Amino acid sequence: MEKLCTFLTLYSLLHAIAMPIAHAKSIDEGPEAVQEWFKNLPNAKEKVTKLQFYFHDIVSGKNPSAITVAQSNSSINSPTMFGVIRMMDNALTIGPEPNSKIIGRLKDLWCSFYGGNSLLMTLNFVFGHGKYNGSTLSVLGHNPILHKYREMPIVGGSGVFRLARGIATASTVWFNVTSQDAVVEYNVIVLHY
Ligand SMILES: *[C@@H]1O[C@H](CO)[C@@H](O)[C@H](O)[C@H]1NC(C)=O
Ligand SMILES: *[C@@H]1O[C@H](CO)[C@@H](O)[C@H](O)[C@H]1NC(C)=O
Ligand SMILES: *[C@@H]1O[C@H](CO)[C@@H](O)[C@H](O)[C@H]1NC(C)=O
């Protein structure tokens, strides 16, 4: 029951971010506006924001969203794909289904497999809807892909997420070993102003 409630809360939250806000004021990113924002920081209240979304990692087929851009010759036959670097531009959606509503992109993701089924994750969540439209969150962390939950630090953000810090928890919903396509759930909790 508690789990269901948590899920429903997250689900409503998600709907809140998925709904485009008709007159959402875009945040002023000019240098003067940013300076002003910092000047007002002592009066700003810290907020906690929780987000849940899914990313679709399509490696196979005609339109992959993730491509291998480099691989070391000496470890080309490594069963753990040691030395592979992949770049991704994956859809972020509100649900795990392939046709689920897109609310952003996961960009510039570099995954370097460094053995033992672990990845170095460098990624930006780029939100494209509602009050978070244009705002980003950045993750830098260690991803042991076979673990049920992988906790990675949110190291910063932009737009409404300026000076954000928090945790992104990844868990695999679906993975096809043959094609390497995957759907991964992300639960994100951030402190920001
Ligand atoms: C990588 O391996 C292939 C096949 O063995 C070889 O033809 C190629 O020259 C190698 N490249 C480098 C940079 O070592
Ligand atoms: C997000 O912002 C961009 C650029 O300001 C705008 O073109 C786009 O329509 C917005 N999208 C939504 C869903 O609000
Ligand atoms: C997994 O991927 C393989 C190769 O692309 C494909 O033939 C197979 O149908 C996929 N399995 C599922 C359950 O989608």
From TrEMBL:
<keyword id="KW-0964">Secreted</keyword>
<keyword id="KW-0052">Apoplast</keyword>
<dbReference type="InterPro" id="IPR004265">
    <property type="entry name" value="Dirigent"/>
</dbReference>
<protein>
    <recommendedName>
        <fullName>Dirigent protein</fullName>
    </recommendedName>
</protein>
<keyword id="KW-0732">Signal</keyword>
<comment type="subunit">
    <text>Homodimer.</text>
</comment>
<comment type="function">
    <text>Dirigent proteins impart stereoselectivity on the phenoxy radical-coupling reaction, yielding optically active lignans from two molecules of coniferyl alcohol in the biosynthesis of lignans, flavonolignans, and alkaloids and thus plays a central role in plant secondary metabolism.</text>
</comment>
<feature type="signal peptide">
    <location>
        <begin position="1"/>
        <end position="24"/>
    </location>
</feature>
<dbReference type="GO" id="GO:0048046">
    <property type="term" value="C:apoplast"/>
</dbReference>
<dbReference type="GO" id="GO:0009699">
    <property type="term" value="P:phenylpropanoid biosynthetic process"/>
</dbReference>
<dbReference type="Pfam" id="PF03018">
    <property type="entry name" value="Dirigent"/>
</dbReference>
<comment type="similarity">
    <text>Belongs to the plant dirigent protein family.</text>
</comment>
<dbReference type="InterPro" id="IPR044859">
    <property type="entry name" value="Allene_oxi_cyc_Dirigent"/>
</dbReference>
